[in-house]
Amino acid sequence: MSTDPGGIPRTAPAGPPRGARDLADPRVRLAAAQHALLAALVEEAEAPAGFDGERVRVQARALLAKRAGVAAAHHAWLAEALGQEYLAAFTRYARDRPLVAGSGGHADALAFEEFLRRRGELPKPPRRPFAARLRCWCPGAG
Fold first, then answer.
1. Could you tell me if residue 61 is inside a domain?
2. Domain match, 42 and 91 both
């Protein structure tokens, strides 16, 4: 697991730091609060005390839409083939698959494609020529 310069993990921890369960310690309380907020944002958990639940849900949806958009940019054909169903399908995929630190959008897009393949929901690629599809995503290309 990678860490930032302060030694803090870049991925969601499984809970408060090991061996530090004393909630009298402000660092333990902060770690527990951060974990609860992160769980609410990416794991559909309840918003922690002191946070507006609706705002946390709005932000969680925005983060999911951003993640779906990044994956769509890497697999534009898949987003095009699924059309209006893309976000719903990506949401089903992402619900139990948090983004792994350092994996990036391309790996996420490949994992989403494999998810659809295993469920028998992978659409056939569009028949339009690649250059025509490229123009949809990159104005001025081709």
1. no
2. no
Record the tokens describing residue 77, joined without a space. Answer: 């054909």
User: Which H or E run contains 141?
Assistant: none
Q: Which domain holds residue 45?
A: 12-51
Segment 104-141, tens digit of pLDDT: 899 999 999 999 999 999 998 877 655 555 555 555 54
In angstroms, rounded to a whole number, what is the distance separating the alpha carbons of residues 101 and 66?
Answer: 16
Residue with tokens 């998810």, as numbered in its chain: 115
Question: Does some domain include residue 62?
Answer: no
Do 37 and 75 share a domain, yes or no?
Answer: no
Helix (H, G, I), strand (E, B) or coil at 52: coil
Locate tokens 């290309």: which residue? Answer: 141
Phi first, then psi: what are they for 48, rounded to 5°? Answer: -70, 160
Give per-residue pLDDT as tens, 64-79. Answer: 999 999 999 999 999 9
pTM of the predicted protein model: 0.68
Cα diameter, the chain: 63
